[in-house]
Specification:
By secondary structure, the protein is α+β, with helices and mostly antiparallel strands. It contains 10 helices and 16 strands.
Length: 317
C-alpha cells in the first residue's frame, strides 16, 4: 500500500508534516509516501492526477478548502479514497465531518489507519457571460449573492495575516452594495419559478467557519442538497435572519430544546431540498464554490453525485 500527499506549500510546514507521515506510514506498514506540490497555475487537479497515475491507494490533501475541492474532484473520477490534513482558514469539510482541525499527528494517523466514509459530491455547470460552460465539483456549498460577493472582496494578504477576520472587512463592503437580483430556477423536474432574492446557497453540508450552522438539516450522505433562498428587505428582515441563523440554528437546534420549541418560519429565509437545481440570471453574478470565487455566471446547473467521494475517518468513529 502506498499513499500520496497533494499539498499546498504555502499552507503547511513541509518538513514537520513529512516527519509525521514517515512515522505513521511505517507504523501502518505502508510503502514510502509520494509527494505532489500544487502551484498557483495548477492548485490541485494536475498533481492529484499525477498521484493516481503513479498507482497510489490513497491521497492525502494538505491544504485549504480549495485544495480539498480540487483533489476530491479528480479522485471522484477514479474511486480512490481521500484523507484530509486541514491546513487552511475555513477547513469546512473537516468541520462538517467533525474531524480534527489542528492535530497533524491525529489527521495523518487517520489517513493510514482509518476507515472510508462515502459522501456526496456536488457537480456544477457554470454558464459564463460569453455563453461558454465549464464544469466543477464542490463538497460543501455553491453560492450566489452576498457570500460570493464577500469572497471576491476578501483581501488575500490580510487573510494570510489574520485568518477568518479578513472576512469581516469583506462582508461590510459586500453589504454596502445593492445585492438583490432576479432569477429563474427549477428544482429537480419541478416547475420553473421566479424570485427576487439576495443570496442563493446550495449546500451539501451546513456548518460554516465560526461554527455557524447555516443549513441545519443538511447531510453529507443523503443524496440531496439543502437550498437556502435568502430575500431580506429592510432592517426587520435582517434581524429575523440573524435570529434564525445565530440563535435558532446556532443554539436551539444544537440542544434538546429543539424538540420543544420547534421550527420558526420567517419571510426572509426559505429552505428547500432537491437533488438538482437549475437557475438562470438576467445579469452576471459572482459565484463561489467551497469558499473560492470562480468568476461570474449567468446560469448554473447543480446536481448531486451520491457517495461519489470516500473520506478517511477515524476507525473508532
Amino acid at each position: 500500500m502506498r499513499a500520496a500527499v497533494v499539498y499546498n506549500p504555502v499552507k503547511i510546514d513541509l518538513d514537520a508534516v513529512r516527519a509525521v507521515v514517515d512515522r505513521e506510514q511505517a507504523r501502518a506498514g505502508w510503502d514510502p509516501t509520494l509527494w505532489f506540490e500544487t502551484s498557483k497555475e495548477d492548485p490541485g487537479r494536475g498533481p492529484t492526477l499525477e498521484a493516481v497515475a503513479a498507482g497510489v491507494d490513497l491521497v492525502i490533501a494538505a491544504g485549504g478548502d480549495g485544495t480539498v475541492r480540487l483533489v476530491a474532484e479528480a479522485l471522484a473520477e477514479h474511486g480512490l479514497p481521500l484523507a484530509l490534513l486541514p491546513s487552511g482558514t475555513g477547513n469546512l469539510l473537516a468541520r462538517n465531518m467533525d474531524l480534527t482541525l489542528d492535530d497533524v499527528e491525529h489527521s495523518v494517523r487517520t489517513a493510514f489507519t482509518g476507515r472510508g466514509r462515502p459522501i456526496d459530491l456536488g457537480h456544477v455547470e457554470i454558464r459564463r457571460p460569453d455563453g461558454s460552460v465549464d464544469q466543477h465539483a464542490f463538497l460543501v456549498m455553491a453560492g450566489l449573492g452576498i457570500d460570493a460577493t464577500m469572497l471576491a472582496a476578501t483581501d488575500e494578504d490580510l487573510k494570510a495575516k489574520v485568518g477568518w477576520l479578513a472576512y469581516v472587512k469583506a462582508i461590510v463592503a459586500a453589504l454596502r452594495q445593492t445585492n438583490t437580483f432576479r432569477l429563474q430556477y427549477r428544482l429537480d423536474d419541478g416547475p420553473l419559478q421566479r424570485l427576487r432574492t439576495h443570496t442563493v446557497i446550495v449546500g451539501n453540508c451546513g456548518t460554516l467557519t465560526g461554527n455557524i450552522l447555516l443549513l441545519p438539516d443538511a447531510a453529507l450522505d443523503d443524496g440531496r442538497f439543502d437550498v437556502l433562498l435568502m430575500s431580506p428587505e429592510g432592517l426587520g428582515h435582517w434581524l429575523q435572519v440573524l435570529g434564525k441563523v445565530f440563535i435558532e440554528n446556532g443554539i436551539v437546534r444544537r440542544t434538546p430544546l429543539r424538540h420543544v420549541i420547534g421550527r420558526r418560519e420567517i419571510t426572509a429565509l426559505n429552505y428547500v431540498t432537491a437533488a438538482a437545481m437549475s437557475l438562470a440570471l438576467p445579469a452576471a453574478r459572482q459565484v463561489e464554490l467551497d469558499g473560492d470565487t470562480l468568476g461570474e455566471a449567468t446560469g448554473l446547473h447543480v446536481r448531486v453525485l451520491p457517495g461519489a467521494v470516500t473520506i478517511q475517518v477515524p476507525a473508532e468513529s
